[in-house]
Design brief:
Blueprint lengths: L6 E5 L4 H10 L5 E6 L13 E6 L5 H7 L5 E4 L6 H6 L1 H8 L1 H13 L4 E7 L22 H18 L4 E7 L1 E3 L12 H10 L16 E3 L11
Parallel strand pairs: 1-2, 1-4, 2-3, 4-5, 5-6, 7-8
Helix pairs in contact: 4-6, 5-6
Length: 229
């Protein structure tokens, strides 16, 4: 896919994935709209890309309808990412992890725009693996509210793709890490924190016997700025 002369919308536009994506695209002749919650801190950018920042609540379908006008590609990165928070408040989690996807898709259908929608989902939708390695044939078995809601958003996107209203794909990401700002949450950015501790010669503390196996995805845009915590 080429992004030349395209208009891109990135929800969660001040976040880690967006920052690294834009670092790859900043010298592309395109327009980029970064959308994030009010008060978000958008990293400064240089390059050919024309960047516009907008603030708003993605749970507001009228706001999304307006934001999606004249968009060619949508990167839907905005999300509530804590499984603990989702289990504690499932209704609130539906509001941030499911309904915005439906609002986006309905806006695309009504506008008859048929953009490309790329959705940042999670590999944990598969649940406890029945076999290793887990591939595309592995059955989905969400075991948390968070995973269940991510699957619901995926299924909405797949339905609208089959219906011909949008093009798109689901990105089932495992644990993402790489250069960038320190996470504001204590249960996020664990690998980055451990690497920083190792470089500083500090002790590394692990849970249990340290026999757990996790998959990680390294994400870094070209010339991504390194920031100290």
């Amino acid at each position: 896919m080429t992004f030349e002369a395209k208009h891109l919308l990135i929800t969660g536009g001040a976040g880690y994935l967006a920052m690294n994506l834009i670092a790859q695209l900043q010298d592309t002749n395109c327009r980029i709209t970064r959308l994030d919650r009010p008060g978000a801190s958008f990293p400064p950018l240089t390059g050919k890309a024309q960047v516009r920042d907008i603030e708003g609540d993605i749970r507001d379908h009228a706001f999304l309808d307006k934001s999606l006008m004249d968009i060619d590609v949508i990167f839907h990165f905005a999300a509530q990412t804590s499984a603990y928070a989702a289990n504690e408040s499932p209704v609130d989690d539906v509001g941030i992890n499911v309904l915005p996807m439906l609002y986006i898709l309905e806006a695309c259908r009504k506008q008859k725009a048929k953009p490309v929608v790329l959705f940042a989902s999670t590999v944990t939708i598969s649940g406890l693996p029945e076999k290793i390695p887990v591939d595309e044939t592995h059955p989905d078995n969400p075991i948390t509210i968070y995973d269940l809601h991510k699957q619901m958003a995926e299924n909405y996107l797949k339905y609208y793709i089959r219906s011909g209203n949008v093009n798109g794909a689901v990105l089932r990401l495992s644990n993402v890490y790489g250069p960038g700002p320190a996470s504001s949450r204590s249960d996020r950015g664990v690998l980055n924190m451990m690497i920083r501790r190792a470089i500083s010669g500090e002790p590394l503390t692990v849970y249990g016997g340290g026999n757990q196996v996790r998959d990680y995805v390294y994400v870094a845009g070209r010339d991504t700025p390194l920031r100290k915590p």
